[in-house]
Amino acid sequence: MKMKLWTAGLFASLIMAGSALAMDSETIEKHMAEINDKYLVTAEEEGKTKALEEKVAELEAMIQLILDDQDT
Q1: Helices 2-16 & 48-71 angle (0-180, nearest 10)
Q2: pLDDT tens readout for residues 11-40
Q3: Are 63 and 14 in contact (CB under 8 A)?
Q4: What's the pTM value of the predicted model, to 2 decimals?
Q5: Distance from chain centroid for Cα 14
Q6: Residue 3, class by beta-carbon neighbours within 10 Å (0-12 exposed, 13-18 middle, 19+ buried)?
């Protein structure tokens, strides 16, 4: 349950940061699709908990890239 809240918080942060201005929506959609694909593979191979942990880490990295891009 905490992971779901954490993931939802990351998505909210992404939206609130105005990320669409920093990266075009096509790039974001492509990156999100890659993250979701990796999540499905990891969930099948290593379980949902490990998959969620990796997904959160990748979302954090994507948010950081977006924020860094906004700073420049």
Answers
A1: 20
A2: 766 665 555 555 567 888 888 899 889 989
A3: yes
A4: 0.61
A5: 8
A6: middle
